[in-house]
Amino acid sequence: MYRFDTLAIHAGQPNDVATGAVTIPIYQTSTFEQLGPGVHRGFGYARTEHPTRRALEECLASLEGARYGLAFASGMAAIHNVLSLLRHGDHVVSTQDLYGGAWRIFTKYFAKFGIDFTFVDSSDLAAVEQAIRPETKLLWLETPSNPLLRVTDIAACSAIARRTGIRTVVDNTFATPVLQQPIALGADVVVHSTTKYINGHCDALGGAVITDDESLFAELKFFQNAIGAVPGPQDCFLILRGLKTLPLRMARHCENARGVVAYLTDHAQIARIHYPDFGAIVSFEIDASVDDTIDFTKRLRLWTLAESLGGVKSLFCHPPTMTHASVEPEVRRKVGIADGLIRLSVGLEDVRDLIDDLDQALEAIAPRRAACAG
Ligand SMILES: Cc1ncc(COP(=O)(O)O)c(C=O)c1O
């Protein structure tokens, strides 16, 4: 068995048998010739499977230490795929500060079909255990969570779920399999927005579902084909290209994030930092009014205000009005998402330039703060 960095380049990606191409080609075709009715060379119709997607799926599965992978047109399509396992009357226990789009599809879409959700601080094992009911079917974990970067003990939660016959799903988008492999910790399913670190270049949308359970895989693959929210060959190619450098990029992302956190920690104007000591997403609050915080964000020149994360370019967002705008204000406050919270996705630029930019923007709002204090 090859090691992680080798798998990122080789798993599911042999040299092309027909031409010797060393990179998996973009098979830009919607259908494949059949040798006789129902008899084909491995691919029948591109919604069901196509070679570029299969390469991506095999590589993703191998990096998560599992046998089966499914690729989707977006992270939301991947989440939809897993929730399709549920029926009317089923119940889900979920991490409370999770991606706003996941919260939205749970409470505004699947709730319509009679599926019930309880949101808990999943870093509190007693709270997880208490929320479980006889009709609970899934434990949905996002760790580190979004945007507060709280860490959940996947192994302990999976053990609780297994004891009670519940499946554990982990959204591993923030950590990536470089930093955390939930299947080895006892989870049944891993979900990704491959739009983020896995692609890594902010040039394609994608999602993935990974499992080591054969019958669960068969069910999820059936939904993938039946629902059809699948990625085309161009997007699979781009994501597979990004995946090859994931280990290298993650090492530098994390190093840069540590540099940014060290700078923020020493800065008198920073009221609160959320960083779990790994990864490259950092959230913080400035010791300033919400208006001054917004003013600070407008002064950043190198950091780009944008939704999303995990790309080479450093981005930042204001979760209350952006990624978590669909979460009601009272729910946000209850969970601890402050109105002035800023979330950074630390990219791969020279960290000194990233820090200089934060510094000049903080400097610019300092006189106003001093005047208010006076
Ligand atoms: C943790 C997490 N999961 C899922 C998603 C949804 O992914 P996508 O935007 O690719 O649909 C996101 C998007 O930001 C996310 O941050």
Task: Give the SSE layout.
Layout: H1 4-10, H2 51-63, E1 68-72, H3 75-83, E2 91-95, H4 100-109, E3 116-120, H5 125-131, E4 136-142, H6 154-163, E5 167-171, H7 176-179, E6 189-193, E7 207-211, H8 214-227, H9 233-243, H10 246-266, E8 270-274, E9 281-286, H11 290-299, E10 304-305, E11 315-317, H12 329-335, E12 342-345, H13 351-373
The structure holds pyridoxal-5'-phosphate (PLP).
TL;DR?
This protein is an alpha/beta fold and 374 residues long.
Your description of this structure?
This protein is an alpha/beta fold. The chain folds into two domains: 240 residues, Aspartate Aminotransferase, domain 2, CATH 3.40.640; 128 residues, Alpha-Beta Complex (Aspartate Aminotransferase, domain 1). It is 39% helix and 15% strand. It has 13 helices and twelve strands. The strands form two sheets. The protein has a seven-stranded mixed beta sheet, sandwiched between helices. Helix 1 packs antiparallel against helix 2 and helix 11 runs antiparallel to helix 13. The longest helix is centred in the C-terminal third of the chain and has 23 residues. It starts with a helix and ends with a helix. The relative contact order is 0.13. Bound molecules: pyridoxal-5'-phosphate. The site of pyridoxal-5'-phosphate has 16 residues, from helix 3 and helix 4.
Structural class determined from secondary elements: alpha/beta
Q: Give the % helix.
A: 25-40%
Ligand species = pyridoxal-5'-phosphate
Beta-strand percentage range? 15-25%
State the separation between the terminal residues, measured CA to CA: 65 Å
Average predicted local confidence, pLDDT: 96
CATH class placement of the largest domain: Alpha Beta
> Strands of the largest sheet, in order across it?
1-7-6-5-4-2-3
Please give the CATH architecture of the largest domain: 3-Layer(aba) Sandwich
